[in-house]
# Entry
Amino acid sequence: MSIYNNILVAIDLNEETHKVALKAHQIGQQTGAKMTLIHVTEPLSYAYGGDVPMDLSAIQQQLHDHAQQRMDDFIQLHQLSDVDQLLTSGHIETEVHRMANELSTDLIVVGSHGRHGLALLLGSTSNGILHGATCDVLAVRI
# Structure
């Protein structure tokens, strides 16, 4: 029996994302685990407190399409055709936890800048994922 069967890798598709995916892919190869990449786009209404006097759905769809293209490019560039991918919209920590539960994930891999002091007290996405997870979380320093 493998220690990990399902690995969920939360990525933000920036230039440092490859470090996170590479570490998760290595663990997946060693354990035989299935790996899924997840990228979450936050709705534009979050940035404006929810009260936006105009329809942002067309812009939101463009952001989704752009993220999908970046995800496809990332997978092709790093030769990760053997992994599944998810692109969702919502609050990042909530969506990662929701999908981790749906996929019976036993390891979530996230990137972390390793901040200290005030940034640590205020929290971060990685910290939010760690504290709400029902499985192991690996924070890869980027």
In short: The chain has a mean pLDDT of 86. The helical segments are 17-31, 44-47, 57-77, 92-102, 118-122, 125-132. The beta strands are 6-10, 34-41, 84-89, 107-112, 136-141.
